[in-house]
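Database export, one record per block. Field names are fixed; values are copied verbatim from the stored entry.
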Amino acid sequence: MPETVLKGEDDLLPARAAELARFAATLTAAPWSITPEHGARLAAQGLGSDAIEAATGVVAMFNYLTRVADASGIEFDYVSPLPVFQPDRDREPVPRPDRASWPVVPAEHRRLPGFLAMAQAWRQWREYVFDTEEPLSRRERRLLAAAAARECCDRTRADELADHTPRDDRESLLDSFARKLSRQPWRMAAADLAALRDAGYPEPALLHAISVVALQNAESRLAMGRGLTAG
């Protein structure tokens, strides 16, 4: 089954698995295009609201984990039963719609996953990643999150952070880093971190920058997937 998903051969999967795979692919590549119809198709396969919530949380979290791995250059150093995945580094991201077409997600859907242990862990990590003052300032964190939200077409979060746009070359570098990691994580290379180092950011700051961007991508997808699959 993993090989089938990686090859994009969803039609060869059982109907329930195929619908979940399509939902995960859409929420990952084009979160702005998730609609209540996606939720209806999942429900038609016997997935209740809790199951859809769990699926959305898993997809959101993997959008965090893969960006951390892509930006930091993490390689597996253990044997895995999963097939080796080689991304097409030349492929283009899904075209992003104009801002006027960005979806509006109701405020009640901008909350943490509805599972106690996951919500508690997520809340603690969010507070640390978004609100810590060192080794990145709070403004730098907001700048990174704003760029990530815009690349996700997350209207609510982008509006919340609208004042956080680059003021100088150093901030423009952070903005560009966040945009690339958000929209084209498969193209991240050692040179992207080297540019931040050359601008004076120490190693701990690089890890924080990666985490901020990755977490905003996860939270945007969590909100958009939940809000737009709701019937």
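Remark 1: The mean pLDDT is 90.
Remark 2: The longest helix spans residues 203-229.
End of record.
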